């Protein structure tokens, strides 16, 4: 599986939850693939814009909220929003786009998806002790479900687990037991000094002395 196919497969459950929270109960696989692809492209575009603003604003690789806001403005997520030149001309910062985005994210349109994500908090509701414990994401739960021992050793060395430590490869069936020893032995062999015989092309005409 290619990295792109793996990332699309990991993104698919999140898109399915969002679509279900929006009221969709069925969808053709081709339509779902198109929606997942659009979501992946938008997230990649947002990440690229954020990285570009990070380098331009403070010349490092650690973005802040301002870099993300400028990237969201470039991608059309903040509307209505005046340009930086208009804000500088008027002498005040336009917060309409940011306020509209926060109101939309916390509004009734996203109530169901907040409930699925475990972020919904109704006014006057009792606080559960279990809710204070950080919940595991779906990928961690899925890995534990398919691992009989519940350990990470099954996924070690893959993109889903920890990086595998470099181990020495042992060569069996000979005096040399490792690739490093074989390489050292190969370098210790002196180059051959035997004169190689000169091959003559039969199509090459002979010199006058040989004729």
What labels describe this entry?
9 helices; 211 residues; mainly alpha
Q: Helical percent range? A: 40-55%
Instruction: Please report which band the strand proportion falls in: under 5%, 5-15%, 15-25%, 25-35%, 35-45% or over 45%.
Output: under 5%
Which quaternary structure do these chains form?
single chain
* Order of helix and strand elements from N to C terminus: HHHHHHHHH
Secondary structure tally, helices: 9
Major sheet: none
- Low-confidence stretches at least 5 residues in length (pLDDT < 50)? 194-203
Model description:
This protein is mainly α and 211 residues long. The protein contains nine helices and no strands. The longest helix is centred in the N-terminal third of the chain and has 30 residues, at 29-58. The protein is extended, with a radius of gyration of 31 Å. The N and C termini lie far apart (66 Å).
């Amino acid at each position: 599986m290619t990295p792109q196919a793996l990332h699309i497969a990991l993104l698919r459950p999140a898109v399915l939850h969002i679509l279900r929270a929006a009221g969709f109960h069925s969808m053709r696989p081709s339509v779902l693939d198109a929606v997942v692809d659009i979501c992946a492209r938008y997230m990649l575009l947002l990440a690229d814009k954020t990285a570009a603003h990070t380098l331009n604003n403070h010349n490092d690789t650690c973005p802040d909220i301002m870099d993300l806001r400028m990237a969201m403005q470039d991608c059309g997520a903040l509307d209505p929003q005046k340009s930086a030149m208009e804000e500088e001309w008027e002498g005040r910062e336009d917060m309409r786009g940011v306020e509209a985005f926060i109101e939309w994210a916390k509004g009734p349109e996203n109530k169901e998806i907040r409930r699925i994500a475990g972020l919904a908090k109704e006014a006057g509701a009792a606080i559960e002790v279990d809710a204070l414990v950080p919940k595991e994401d779906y990928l961690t739960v899925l890995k534990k479900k398919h691992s009989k021992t519940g350990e990470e050793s099954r996924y070690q060395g893959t993109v889903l687990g920890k990086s595998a430590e470099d181990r020495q490869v042992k060569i069996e069936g000979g005096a040399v037991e490792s690739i490093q020893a074989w390489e050292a032995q190969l370098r210790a062999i002196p180059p051959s000094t035997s004169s190689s015989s000169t091959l003559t092309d039969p199509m090459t005409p002979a010199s006058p002395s040989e004729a």
